[in-house]
Amino acid sequence: MSTPPPAGEQLVCVTGASGYLASHVVRELLARGYRVRGTVRDPADPEKTDHLKRLPGAGERLELVRAELGEPEGLQRALRHCTALLHTASPASTLRGGSRPASYPTGCLMVPPSSPRE
Ligand SMILES: NC(=O)c1ccc[n+]([C@@H]2O[C@H](COP(=O)([O-])OP(=O)(O)OC[C@H]3O[C@@H](n4cnc5c(N)ncnc54)[C@H](OP(=O)(O)O)[C@@H]3O)[C@@H](O)[C@H]2O)c1
Predict the structure, then answer these.
(1) Which of 1, 13, 64, 116 could form a disulfide linkage to 43, CB 3.0–4.6 angstroms apart?
(2) Using a 6 Å CB cutoff, which residues line ligand 1?
(3) CA dihedral 111, 93, 11, 57 (to 10 degrees)
């Protein structure tokens, strides 16, 4: 088994980056030295993104891009050059008590099958 590249050479995609779980994941990845590409539905919305931009390391290593579940092209773009994916985007919020729409049986099924390194 080959040794993985150092954290600083890896780009990790986190979907639903503004969410409760993902915000902690992004903070932890940045703290460990990874480059992070977070997806949000509206990168221009300060309510969704300001807390991420304030994280230590965000200025240098966090990129926020637009992606919507159900739009595979956006997810594919977000995955380009990534070595790992943490897929937390979900229309059903645990905190807000939402119900899971039938069109999103699980988040993972929405991830495009192509190689994330492409
Ligand atoms: N929180 C917990 O304790 C907990 C425990 C167990 C399992 N989970 C599961 O973990 C997942 C995330 O939970 P969470 O508490 O972090 O939820 P959350 O705070 O509501 O975050 C989910 C994120 O998904 C994004 N999203 C929603 N609909 C989307 C869509 N159609 N396309 C793209 N992005 C979309 C939203 O981001 P934007 O609006 O910014 O795009 C939102 O910030 C859920 O599946 C939940 O059931 C959570």
Answers:
(1) 64
(2) 16, 18-22, 40-41, 48, 68-69, 88-95
(3) 170
